[in-house]
Amino acid sequence: MNLNFPPPGRFKTPEGLRLGHDDARAELVRTSTMGGLVGDAAKLVANICLPHFEYEEKFVFPVFSLLPDISAGRVRPEMADVLPLVYGFMAWHDTFNAQHESIGAAVHALLAVGYKEDNREVIEFGYSLRAHERMEHEVIYPTVLLIGKFVQEKLGIK
Questions:
Q1: Which of 46, 68, 75, 146 is the most exposed place for a label (fewest CB within 10 A)?
Q2: What is the mean pLDDT of the chain?
Q3: 1 located within any domain
Q4: Does residue 10 belong to any structural domain of this protein?
Q5: Structural domain of residue 62, as residue ranges?
Q6: For 10, which DSSP code?
Q7: DSSP notation for 33-65
Q8: Does this model's pTM top 0.70?
Q9: H/E run at residue 152
């Protein structure tokens, strides 16, 4: 498995993916500073999510920069440069799944506190995080694998 990662910035994360993380970060900061049980629960979520977000932004989301070319049927040899990111993701796949389980448990705790304190903003944020995590698990991660398979097949790489 070739894990010589392309230099940072070689493949740009689509803005929509980045903005989703930016929104979650801002809400984590706001919720973490609420204090009390909500703040404590939000800090736990932040401690798990923020490093997870950083890894995704460096090694998962950049793979999506190939989608415009792939959807237009364009194949270029330099697309193979994204494969170390895909291989790295594949090597970390079990870790991602474990992190998502931890995130899910932390978000569940945040939701419980939100309900206990009847805090609608916290509840909405918790459901938003839950939806974000499901989107990654059910759509983002499988798409990374599909992009990798597409590039391998089209460029004849084993």
A1: 68
A2: 91
A3: no
A4: no
A5: 15-155
A6: S
A7: TT-HHHHHHHHHHHHHHHHHHHHHHHHTGGGGG
A8: yes
A9: helix 141-155
